[in-house]
Each structure stands twice: as C-alpha cells, then as structure tokens.
Amino acid sequence: MDLTYADYLHVEELLALQQPRSEPVEHDELLFIVVHQAYELWFKLLLHELDKVKTDFVANRTYPAIGTFKRLRTVMKVAVEQVDIVETLTPMSFNSFRDRLDKASGFQSSQFREMEFLLGYKRADMLKHQKEGTPSYEQLVLRLNEPSVVDAFYVFLAHHGVAIPEHLTTRDLTQPTQPDETIEEGILRLYKTQPDLEILFELMTDFDEGLQEWRYRHIKLVERTIGSKRGTGGSLGVEFLKRSLWHPVFPDLWAIRHRL
C-alpha cells in the first residue's frame, strides 16, 4: 500500500489525543487542549533546533547558525501569536472546566523547563516539580548538567578571537548564565568588525526578545484568566511567572546595546 499523508503524519492517532475530561463536555475545553498540545510540539521543535545551534557554535559554523536562529525566531513569533487564541477563553469559560485539570498544570511542562535549562536558565529546584525516575525527569537532569547554548556560544566566540575567562570555561554547569564584561567587550569588537556576526547577534537578540515577549503574554493571559489565584495543581500562578520576566538568555548581547 502506498504511503499516504495521513499515514506519514499519523493523523488518526494525532486526532485521537484530544480527550476532554468535562462531563458533559464543555465547549471550550477542546480549544484549551489543542493549543497546549500545539505548544508542546513547538517546544519539541525548539529543543531540536537549539541542539543544532549548539553543534553549529562548537564547530564554528556561522551561516548554519544564522539560518537556525531565523527559524527559532519565527517559531517564537508563532508561539506568541497562539496566545491570542487562548485569550478568546473568558475567565468564566475556563472555570467551567478548570477543576477537571485536577493537579495538572502547564507549570509541569518538562519540555519548557528543558528549554530553559538548554538556554542557560538553570534552576535545580525545578526538578522537584517532575516525577523522579520518569524519562522527563532524567532528561532534565541531563540538561541541568550539560553545557548550555550559552556555553557553546563561548566556544564560538573563542573561534573568533575572544579570550574566554577561565571562570566561565571551568564554571559549575548547573548554575544559570551570568553576564560577563570580558565577553561583552569581545562581542562588541566582533559587532563592529564582522558583518556576518552582526547578523547572527541580531538574530540571537530577536529570539531572546521573542522568548521574553512570550513570557509577558503568558503572564498577562494567566492574570486575566485567574487573577491572583494559585495556578492549577497548586502552582504559584502569576507571582511565580513574574520572577522570570525580562530574564534574558543572552545577557551580554543586551548589555552592550547602548554602545553600538
């Protein structure tokens, strides 16, 4: 039998994965499920592309990294736009099925935490929100202990003559990225002398801005839907989300903006 579109994409199985829990089924629960499943698919793609960026940086492949950051930036734009769809849910429509979520919460998205770790925003205490011994938990432990995209970026900068301080090359990989003046000076020099790297740095900043925009839109979505209530499953809701707002992935790129 010839391969069909439905076979290749496993469409039948995919469309069977949306299973509302409300009885009788609340109309808006399907929208909630579809959007969040779509987010998990985008997170999967973002992880896939960020792993490629790490490889490109270590191998000093500038133009492949440029192409991948264009894709990453575009995916983040789509992720931000999807918030508009979720915002068609009113607080009353969400509350009509919210109790069916029981202890489930987007706070538990292991792929999003994995993406944070991969981007250098490492917080070991996030592991407590995953079930120990599961594949997701083990994957997060691996991400916590491996070099991040930022660590690979340091290798890339070294290829271009930036002296990477020893405290960065020997640092504890389980700790979050911190800005560094030596890195900033090196990036500034490359900005002004290598136009291809200027393009790369701007795309990296675009992606970083897109992620911050998504965080902001997500916070406002939660705030307008549940206000100051705790999140589903007892998560900390809006106040916790605000702690990560404006937390840049590439702080050194932002620190030099006023000097360009």
- CATH architecture field: Up-down Bundle
What fraction, in percent, of the residue positions are helical? 55-70%
Main structural class: mainly alpha
Number of helical runs?
13
Distance from first to last alpha carbon: 60 Å
List the helices and strands and how they pair.
Layout: H1 5-9, H2 11-15, H3 29-58, H4 62-86, H5 91-95, H6 110-118, H7 135-145, H8 149-159, H9 166-169, H10 181-193, H11 195-226, H12 237-243, H13 251-255
Features:
mainly alpha, 0% strand, single chain, Methane Monooxygenase Hydroxylase, Chain G, domain 1, 260 residues
Word description of this protein:
With 260 residues, the protein is mainly α. It has one domain: Methane Monooxygenase Hydroxylase, Chain G, domain 1. It is built from 13 helices and no strands.
Brief description of this entry?
The chain has helices spanning 5-9, 11-15, 29-58, 62-86, 91-95, 110-118, 135-145, 149-159, 166-169, 181-193, 195-226, 237-243, 251-255.
